[in-house]
Amino acid sequence: MQYVKVPAWEFYGWEPETLGFPDGWKIHEQRMNGHDSPRLTVDEVADRLRSPVGTKPLSEMARGRRKCCIIFDDMTRPTRQSQMLPAVLGELHRGGLSDDQIVFVMASGAHHGRLLLDFQKKLGTEVPERFLVFNHNCYENTVELGETSGGTPVHVNREVMSCDLKVTLGVMMPHFGYGFGGGSKMLLPGVSGIDSITHNHRIMEGTGPGRVTENTRRLDSEEAARMAGLDFVVNAFLNAEADVAGMVCGDVVDAHREGVKVARGHYATELVRDADVVVGNGYPMANEGYKAYHILRDSVREGGDMVFLLYTPEGCRVHHYNGRFGEDFGGRGWTKTTYVKKPWRMSRVFCVTPQVARADEYYYGEGSQWVKTWEACLGMLEDVHGGDASVALYPTAAMQISRENASNV
């Protein structure tokens, strides 16, 4: 046997998993460009905060402000804000803000609320002790700001709108709806009302992995962020350890566009074509591991096999209030569309997860086969492919993007 380790269990131990393959199989481990990029130091984070794109430095923006809200992404994103917060808080303090003038709101969009242990995983154990940290509720306590030119009603979290300095602290990764995450997405859908989210998510023109310039959904989101007065965004780039390995900050649009230039190189991955077996590790977003689908679909041969690795105790589809609530009905904005759609290019879809939830199977395609161990999956793969197969393995697939899609505009 030959063995390959893949990172796994984000926020639940961060321990790798070892995959064994038959000696006769040819394994292509396809890593993104930024796989081994070094983690930024606190000083390097501070340097970037002091050299933003399109705005004054964060410390200058803080001067004379009454109250700052730090909007941070939720558990569907692997961002460890604790690696950036010492520098961010330091800059806010330099600008004259005290701890009592700073609050945190989790940008959960239409995802479910979280608990103290989740806040601690993201922010560190000290921050929830020192600061007020709140969940966002997309159904209540929002402020109406009007409509975008595309007709999206802009309803934004009341606590966020009570602050005269609004800062986001998140990650920029490939996204099939917004091209790349980060930027205005932290506000819409992040801390917006359900009507705003539903209308924005129905915009499909120009969407797709890596598509930004004519992505009407993102442009709509950016217009909403301007209306809400989003002041300063921090967009991080992660390495394979989910450490902050790069950062672009500043204006909600200008810094995002500059960040897109970085992201197109950082997450870009050389695609293997026509692989017999394609294995995509849902890390570092196993609770939304289907986001690995695009790179896997483009890599597998006609009639080959696709495998998702989903190592998380949270279930392989984080609970959405605009998601599925019954066999054939769901919340506002839900449709029956799934991410892994038939007709399939591949012959079979496997999902490997130690803790199976039957309700999750729907999102990975009708007929997907769920097993609890890699060994069980390998046995079924060997039954078809025998001792000779080509394998494309994407170790951080949920944040990898093919070079072709990375070059989209």
Q: Which key phrases capture this entry?
A:
409 residues, alpha/beta, 2-enoyl-CoA Hydratase, Chain A, domain 1, Rossmann fold, 6-stranded parallel sheet, 6-stranded mixed sheet, 20 strands
In terms of topology, how is this protein built?
Layout: E1 2-6, E2 17-21, E3 26-29, H1 42-49, H2 58-62, E4 68-73, H3 85-94, E5 102-107, H4 116-123, H5 127-130, E6 132-134, E7 142-147, E8 153-157, H6 158-161, E9 165-171, E10 174-175, E11 179-180, H7 194-201, H8 216-228, E12 232-238, E13 244-250, H9 254-266, E14 268-269, E15 275-281, H10 293-297, E16 300-309, E17 348-352, E18 369-371, H11 374-385, E19 390-394, E20 401-402, H12 403-406
Helix pairs in contact: 1-3
Report on the structure:
The chain has 409 residues and is an alpha/beta fold. The protein folds into two domains: 2-32 and 269-406, LarA, C-terminal domain (2-enoyl-CoA Hydratase, Chain A, domain 1, Alpha-Beta Complex); 42-266, 3-Layer(aba) Sandwich (Rossmann fold). Helices cover 23% and strands 24% of the residues. It has helices at 42-49, 58-62, 85-94, 116-123, 127-130, 158-161, 194-201, 216-228, 254-266, 293-297, 374-385, 403-406; strands spanning 2-6, 17-21, 26-29, 68-73, 102-107, 132-134, 142-147, 153-157, 165-171, 174-175, 179-180, 232-238, 244-250, 268-269, 275-281, 300-309, 348-352, 369-371, 390-394, 401-402. The strands form six sheets. A six-stranded parallel β-sheet has the order 3-19-15-16-17-18. Strand 4, helix 3 (85-94) and strand 5 form a beta-alpha-beta unit. Helix 1 crosses helix 3 (85-94). The radius of gyration is 21 Å and the shape is globular. The mean pLDDT is 96.
